[in-house]
Amino acid sequence: MTAELVRGQNHPLSQVRLEIRITAGAPVLAGATLSDDSGKVRGVEWVAHPGAPTLPGLEVSRQAAAEHRLAVDLDAVPEQVHRVDVLLALPSGTGGPLRFGAVAAPSVAVTGLDGTQIARYTITGLDAESAVVALELYRRQGAWKVRAVGQGYAGGLAALLTDQGLPEADELADGIQEAVTRGLARSVPAPAPGLEQPGTASHGSPDAGPLWPPSPSHGQPSSGVSPSSGASGSPVDYTHPRRHPAPPPPAPEAPPGPAGQPVAPVAGDAVGWSMEERLYNQVWGMFEDLARTTAAYRSAVDFADSRLEKELDQALTDPRDRLGPAGDAAREAARSRREALVDQARAVLDRDLAQLTAEGEVVEPALPPAFAGWDNPVWHGYQVPTEPPLAVRLGELHLPESVPLRVPMLVRLPLERGLWIDTGRETAPDGWDTAPEGLRHLAMEAAVALAVRMLAVHPAGEFRVQVIDPAGSASRALTPLVRSGVLTGPPAAGAAGVRDVLGHLTRRVDLLQMAVRGGAAESLPPDLDMARQLLFVNDFPHGFDDRAVTELRYLADEGPSVGVHLLMVADREDAAAYGPLLDPLWHSLMRLTPVPDDHLADPWVGHAWTYEPSLVPPGSEVLDHVLAKVAQASPKQR
Q: Cβ(470)–Cβ(539) under 8 Å?
């Protein structure tokens, strides 16, 4: 079971041969220092960095990258070494971000050689810092442990190394940055930032922060037409820089197709240490391929339109050709060339969509419950997991050109942002009920499905759900959760119920944050429930007074770092009386909709992706089946 560490918390290590896996929102350099029993780094020869990446029992990356895997063999480090500090720093002079506050929070995981996670730590709270001690492996009474550190340095790598006791810290920092600059051409870029709502932080991240490597089976779609191709239609390489092969364990081998035909798709045909990771990477590889090929098609159409406009202008330049057969022929030829270019681009797009559709038909049935739609047969054999998943499905994504092809929208866990299902939409596609009551009911169905999914994909007892329904208006939609007994308590009603639940969770967040900041995580009360909490709020702001609103904002901002997450069903207009006071709350949440809506912006290529919620099929009893399993496996809640 993976230990989710908070700052200052430690965890025993049962293995000595490890990997330190780092994920960041921008290319970072990774290094490590060795310290003796007094905490002193004896010299530059005890520092592993891109310019000198290997020490006994330790090897770090040779370049800046958004993802790193550091190899550690604790049995091979010198006997006088009692601590190994893992360092991260932003490269200087490369045009990239200069402070960690400008990028997604870095995440560091300690894993076995088989990829099984032992401990994980997301470094939150960084702002002006450009270097950070992420975590430390330390020897205590003959055994090794890991501790989450998260100590940042606004003075950069030089300040960090000075704090490590190195007198030549400035020279060493300059040398490390120079080594990174020399390797910049090899630098691995950050994962695609995923989906971003205008005016808000990015969703993933990708979180999100998401690792979105390639699927080797994917083709390299291109438009076949671009402004630089002219009439020849020479293909343009739209290959995304993240889509490159990597060496980890081989994926299943795809069966060869007929000569000249695409290779048959295979589920899990992507890089990764486990089938779950390979499927996750393959899904986001499909997302990238769809984004790229659609961008190529749109670019080709734009070029064809601009070329047509230019040729028509030229045809009108000579007054003698404006009228008569010559002018008509020139205009008709220009339109024909435009149609030929568009048809050529559309043929390439259709080819790529057919390949992605075939891949989706293979991948979707192979997805684990955390990634699968509610109509997937995998739920029929559902069993409560023993490990939390890499990510969770929030819905599906598609573009106008790609219908009916849809790509699962997967978001990394633990969630770094709360979720808001917006009931204020005024229009929706044909066939969807947008009357206020109908929309609220659809929103509650989507929210209940999300809450059940979060319960189902976590190990027994490691995830709790508390519900606030001030007016009791969602009692029908909440029936599956209430009837199964999986809730921490009955839905809180009325202003008093709202105050009780928010007060309890606020005190929990305060207690955990004080323990972390004081480095006293071991002193937390033994009866404190360390399970992650999901606060499910319906019909906000009804039933909320000013204090309750302030506490909700606090939970939205501070809760995720200590395992308290927010799921809201609300119409922003209902809270209009608060004015700009609640703007930070809405901007901090990931906005979802109960009906298809093209509000998710992709900053990579500028697409507006249509989000569609993952709803339970009408008449299905899958929620009751899953909740019964969860309730049966859950320990008695304190």
A: yes
In this prediction, residue 365 carries a pLDDT of 93
How far CA 485 is from CA of 476, 482, 631, in Å, comes to 15, 6, 7
Contacts of 428 (CB under 8 A, 6+ apart): 434, 439, 595, 596, 597
Residue 345, token pair as written in the block = 């681009």
Contact 514, 464 (CB under 8 A): no
**Contact predicate 282/371, CB 8 Å:** no
Can you say whether the dihedral through the CA atoms of 282, 413, 383, 613 is positive or negative?
Answer: negative
The single-letter DSSP state of residue 147 is E
Average pLDDT over residues 444-457: 95
pLDDT tens sequence across 451-464:
999 999 999 999 99
Residues 6+ apart with CB under 8 A from 27: 64, 65, 66, 91, 94, 96, 187, 188, 189, 190
Q: Is 162 exposed, middle or buried (0-12, 13-18, 19+ CB in 10 A)?
A: middle
Neighbours of 429 (CB within 10 A): 11
pLDDT band at 469 (very low <50, low <70, confident <90, very high): very high
> Per residue in 562-620, pLDDT tens?
999 999 999 989 888 888 888 889 999 999 999 999 888 876 677 889 999 999 999 99
What is d(CA 280, CA 392) in angstroms, rounded to the nearest whole number?
Answer: 10
For 48, the enclosing helix (H) or strand (E) is strand 47-48
Q: How many residues does the chain have?
A: 638
Q: Element (H or E) spanning 34, and its range?
A: strand 17-35
Please report, rounded to a whole number, the percentage of residues in the chain having pLDDT higher than 70.
83
- Compute the distance between CA of residue 125 and CA of residue 558 in angstroms, rounded to an integer: 10
CB within 8 Å of 386: residues ≥ 6 apart: 1, 459
